[in-house]
Write a structure and sequence with these properties.
- The N and C termini lie far apart (about 50 Å).
- Helix 4 crosses helix 5.
- The protein is of the alpha+beta class and about 140 residues long.
- It folds into 2 domains: about 60 residues, lambda repressor-like DNA-binding domains (434 Repressor (Amino-terminal Domain)), CATH 1.10.260.40; about 70 residues, no CATH class.
Length: about 140
């Protein structure tokens, strides 16, 4: 995610605005997920990518605010994305779609969001399987 990338590189939004010549307010909206990547002009994305010395594809991944999670135990892939300033986990397991709000978007959460998502995904699948077993026991 772009905000974490900037923090890792020790680049402020102000500094990025100066180097890329993109208005601070525009960059602030992009970095803080207030605007969807699909609604950003290609020229703006090009200038940001150039200033950060990353490809357009890399920048798109950083701005898409999606993290792919894979649970080998269940052979299941999920996605974590930002919606309404919260991390949301979405995945499918045995034709059932799961959507779960994880936590607010904060600096502390960003460091652990993959682990939090994996833990929650495993919990939801485990609960789902237990419900299925319970149903089988009742019917028997």
């Amino acid at each position: 995610m772009l905000k974490e990338f900037l923090q890792q590189k020790d680049i402020s939004i102000y500094k990025l605005a100066r180097v890329s010549q993109i208005p601070y307010s525009t960059l602030n909206d992009i970095v803080n997920c207030k605007v969807d990547i699909a609604n950003i002009r290609a020229g703006i994305l090009f200038e940001i990518a150039k200033a950060l010395d990353v490809s357009m594809d890399e920048l798109y991944q950083l701005c898409s605010n999606k993290i792919v999670i894979y649970l080998e135990k269940y052979s299941t892939k999920g996605t974590v994305f930002v919606k309404n300033k919260k991390y949301v986990l979405e995945f499918q397991y045995h034709n059932k779609k799961f959507i779960d709000e994880l936590c607010p978007v904060k600096k502390e959460a960003a460091m652990f969001i993959e682990s939090i998502a994996q833990w929650q995904m495993e919990k939801l699948i485990s609960d789902y399987e237990m419900e299925g077993m319970y149903e089988l026991c009742i019917k028997a």
